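Quick start: read one record
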Amino acid sequence: MAIFHPFPPFYDPQSRILILGSFPSVRSRETHFYYGHPQNRFWKVVAMLLGENVPVTLDDKIQLLHTHHIALWDVAASCDITGSADSTMKCTHYNDIRPILRHCPIERIGVNGKTAAKFYRKGILPMTGKTACELPSTSPANAAWSLQKLMDAWRPFICNP
């Protein structure tokens, strides 16, 4: 049974970086915002690379994104998924990122993890013709990647002027 994405994309007219995940985890669906699982290293990686404190509250996260012109969304508009496991995910509909691209000066697009990259190539790339940088997943399920290794991999994407 398909689950529909429960909250809208996050962006503003100044967003220059767009980061797409696969689909919100159970915890993110509960908190109604991106990367809500406390073990997901997304906020830590991005904040540390930008020289900021790791945001704790939703307001802190929103401020970090606004300050650094980062937009967030997911590749799947709906999918069949068991819990939060990307490995079980079957995308049924893709999000159309073209409105974000029309309204924001997006300079680069990144996808957080292999599943997001696979679905981006299958469903969004043909729609937009825009390539995306495949980044290693910040999910706690990607335990083979240490925080330092993630930061090293994400640095060129986040810190590229």
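Residues 3-159 form a domain with the Uracil-DNA Glycosylase, subunit E fold (CATH 3.40.470.10).
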